[in-house]
Design goal:
The chain is about 50% helix and about 20% strand. By secondary structure, it is of the alpha/beta class.
């Protein structure tokens, strides 16, 4: 006989003492039995512990038709729908029991103990099988299909559906993580569950199926709609009922194609997701449809992803260097350089870094590209040292994804060791936004690297969300002003004051300040007056190939000999 803890629980709702005793005697050898005399008491117990019971035995002839009322509540309350009910009836009417919502029946006078026990066992087993199937089909939180079942089911119904005009729809909650951070995970789960409930309500109208594709993303396959604004508005209303943060919103991306041809369903939703992602951050648009322009962009991105491996092997990815000049002296002198990636594609020609760096950041390929740049830059420092007996410290960019690499520090140390360089000759640039996203994790990584002798440069300062308090804690050796402030400081007084403020912050922190994007002599003079230490920009040079950068080294060395 199984132990008490492992046995299942059966609730018997019966007001006849003789019947109560019969069920107790028949079932107690195999199950834990709870006997109650009315449905009100039963509901209280079930509400307190809805998952406790595996079966309910319900007397049909309870006073005041409470059996019928209980079955109605059971059908209306989701927490009761997973518990099977066997009706105990004195009527010779099986169909009547099933119409009431019963899963099985036991007729009075009560059958033999073996029949009662067998019916209970069979009913419980059937529901367990049903629940097991539902667990693989349904997402527990939203009640919608799981993504795996969604695509399997979709592929089964497609042959019956090819003549109809259909849409693939992606629903995404922008900045969903803020809900969990600000309001707690419980509120986030509640929002997702409510969206699931709403989508289930409209599935019939849209002749649709839907799934929860990931944490805060939903897929819907439905008949074509001319406008999805009503759907977006309804979902946004659910969101704003719980959330009062303005930059958390529902986005909808749509892919519509009458002749689907050989394109697989996963690709439909990839395209709808591309349309959805296109309006990220643009709060004037909440619904976006995949079009020919997005299709061309998508195909180009797929090609870049495919070609980047060969580009690294053939060195089509080239590292260029932009000089940085110290300006607080009689004459500007070469201080260091920044390594910047250029892609010269054999058929597409020059590819703007803005076209592939964000793409590779989104899919993780940026780690491979960054590592390539780090190695190339270190090897170039070594070549300049050997050829000119001159050290040009070079800063390399580290993406926010690189920070999560547990082997990051070892990679840098090994690169320096391979080229016989010291950490002081190799600087690391990290954007301000990376600090704001994962401040504590970043601080731990960079603290360790600084102890090894690496210099840390905060890039694009002024565009992120660093607080002054955070600046006193994060490990930085150089502060770099974002070029957007520098380029507009002569036209806009506020931006000029912002530049002055950042320079003052650098002085307060006792670290050098670098201004990037300097293009004119008047900008240089203004920055010198403000106390900026180093400038970088087209005023001195655009990023150039290593052989062209050598001219700056030769010129700098010639100044030393005069």
């Amino acid at each position: 006989m199984s132990s008490y803890k492992s046995r299942q629980n059966i609730m018997v709702i019966e007001d006849n003492p003789d019947c109560q005793e019969t069920f107790q005697n028949v079932l107690e050898e195999s199950y834990n039995i709870t006997v109650v005399g009315n449905t009100q008491e039963a509901l209280l117990l079930l509400m307190d512990a809805p998952t406790t019971y595996s079966l309910i035995l319900l007397e049909q002839d309870l006073p005041d038709d409470t059996c019928i009322e209980f079955l109605k509540q059971r059908n209306a309350q989701s927490f009761l729908q997973n518990i099977p009910v066997i009706v105990i009836t004195g009527e010779n009417d099986e169909s009547g029991c099933y119409k009431l919502g019963a899963d099985e029946f036991i007729r009075k006078p009560l059958s033999s103990p073996d029949i009662i026990l067998a019916r209970c066992e069979r009913t419980i087993a059937l529901y367990e099988s049903k629940n097991l199937v539902q667990q693989t089909e349904r997402d527990k939180l939203s009640g919608l299909y799981t993504i795996d079942y969604f695509f399997e089911y979709l592929k089964q119904i497609l042959p019956l559906d090819m003549g109809s005009d259909r849409d693939a729809v992606v629903i995404d909650i922008e900045h969903f993580r803020l809900i969990n951070e600000i309001y707690g995970r419980g509120t986030g789960d509640l929002v997702l569950a409510e969206i699931g409930v709403y989508l289930q309500q409209v599935l019939t109208t849209l002749n649709a199926i839907a799934c929860r594709a990931s944490a805060d993303v939903f897929y819907v396959y439905c008949i074509h709609q001319d406008d999805y604004q009503e759907l977006q508005t309804a979902l946004q209303t659910i969101l704003t009922h719980y959330i009062k943060v303005s930059n958390i919103r529902v986005r909808v991306g749509v892919w519509h194609y009458v002749e689907r041809g050989m394109i697989d369903p996963e690709t439909w939703f990839d395209r709808a997701k591309s349309a959805c992602d296109r309006i990220s951050g643009n709060f004037t648009i909440s619904v976006s449809t995949y079009n020919s322009g997005l299709h061309s962009k998508h195909l180009r991105e797929e090609r870049l992803i495919r070609d980047v491996y060969e580009a690294i092997e053939r060195k089509d990815l080239r590292v260029y260097y932009q000089p940085k000049y110290a300006i607080q002296g009689d004459k500007p002198h070469l201080r260091s350089a920044e390594a910047l990636i250029h892609w010269i594609h054999p058929t597409l020609g020059f590819i703007n870094p803005g076209d592939f760096i964000p793409l590779f950041e989104s899919n993780g390929l940026i780690q491979m590209v960054d590592y390539y740049v780090w190695k190339e830059a270190a090897a170039q420092i070594r070549r300049w040292k050997d050829e000119y007996d001159f050290t040009v410290p070079v800063s390399v960019n580290v993406s926010r994804i690189d920070i999560y690499d547990p082997d990051l520090e070892n990679k840098f140390c090994n690169i320096l060791k391979e080229n016989n360089l010291s950490p002081s000759e190799y600087m690391i640039e990290i954007t301000e936004s990376a600090y704001a996203e994962n401040a504590q994790g970043l601080i731990e990584v960079l603290d360790s690297m600084r102890k090894k002798g690496f210099k840390i440069e905060m890039d694009d300062f002024g565009t992120g969300y660093s607080s002054l308090g955070m600046l006193t804690e994060i490990p930085i050796d150089i502060l770099k002003i974002d070029m957007s402030f520098v380029r507009s400081m002569e036209k806009h007084e506020k931006n000029k004051r912002m530049v002055e403020l950042i320079i003052d912050i650098a002085k307060f922190l006792k670290v050098p300040c670098v201004a990037e994007g300097v293009e004119t002599e008047s900008q240089l003079r203004a920055l010198r007056r403000m106390g900026c230490d180093v400038i970088q920009g087209y005023f001195f040079s655009k990023p150039v190939a290593p052989e062209d950068f050598a001219k700056f080294i030769e010129k700098e060395k010639s100044l030393w000999t005069k």
